[in-house]
Amino acid sequence: MIRLDDTPRSPAQTRVVVAMSGGVDSSVVAALYAQAGYDVVGVTLQLYDHGEAMHHRPGACCAGQDIYDARTVAEKLGIPHYVLDYESRFRHAVIERFADAYAAGETPIPCVDCNRTVKFRDLLETARDLGADILATGHYVTSRALPNGRRALFRPLDESRDQSYFLYATTQAQIDMLRFPLGETTKPEVRALAESFGLKVADKPDSQDICFVPNGHYTAIVEKLRPEAAEPGEIVHMDGRVLGRHAGVMRFTIGQRKGLGIAAAEPLYVVGIDAAARRVLVGPREALGVTVIRVDEVNWIGDETLEDAAGAGRDVFVKVRSARAPMPGHLAHAADGSIEVHLAAAEEGVAPGQACVFYEDGAPSARLLGGGVIRRARETFTALTRDIEMVSRSA
Predict the structure, then answer these.
(1) Residues 61, 62, 111, 211: which is the catalytic one?
(2) pLDDT tens column, 232-258
(3) Phi, psi (5° rounding) for residue 270?
(4) How many Cα atoms within 13 Å fall on the side-chain side of residue 269?
(5) What is the pTM of this model?
(6) Is 114 known to be catalytic?
(7) Catalytic residue among 61, 111, 114, 356
């Protein structure tokens, strides 16, 4: 069921700015509000040189074709449409941070940074300048009011489309102005609505790649911006043996098994990355298990304060990958006062730079409580590195 009635005034008196990516989801959101009589303004972000983007392969978002599609939909709906040049903001807040993370041996999530900065900070400010009462997007997440008057985010009806993991950094002030009408519907229903509205994007494929990565080859961008990430180094077993060499730490992530470029009698996985030493550490699968995750840059949108939640050992369910089911754990303070998540069972492939996202429970419609950036794996690797050096000295 799609609800549009949780707005401050009547439709004719409510201005809705819709973030139109050129895809079917945001196009249907714009159509729904326009049909219901709201004062709708479409906005599309130009995040990089869309002339160059025209040469990207199908499946990449935010390219020149997407801007054209968004404009065509706006014309069909009879609503004003603006293209905002956010290239410099996007480069600074997303692309450069993306390259920095890989150069540091981390595995970033650029969509989180884009939502946190360009979309839900900068675009919200622009929406307010346009006189908007709300900003609506095509994300699959549910937003609804709580009994205390605040708004909260929840996992959507369609679990296969759940985008709450990528929205954990949304602040309370932003949530109060944001609307996500597709949270209680499914993708097939959205495409059917697009057909009923006569939108040419009804059958448009979903975006699959990182929008600014040509041909899916992210290493080319990282090497161009941070050449040190492509410097060669050693691949070292946990027992201290040097097994081979690599062509840059940017090519590896925690939990990786394929593409290591080494021969071994047993399956080996990346268990740590020391970017400063240009060293990639490998070991057996059991070495990947992590039960304590240290996080920073934490955004908390629960009812109590983060300090109270961690101090009381607040039970939460967490995701460390977008496609994984939430698993039980609790929040805690580390000895230095930072935030830790203690898991009820070991989780594999916990990579620094990825997100650890908190939910109220493990239900399909669970409330989103926030999250942070994973740092724990780096500390684990530091301990393993000390073991390697001790083995090397005793050899």
Answers:
(1) 211
(2) 999 999 999 999 999 999 999 999 999
(3) -70, 120
(4) 14
(5) 0.90
(6) yes
(7) 114
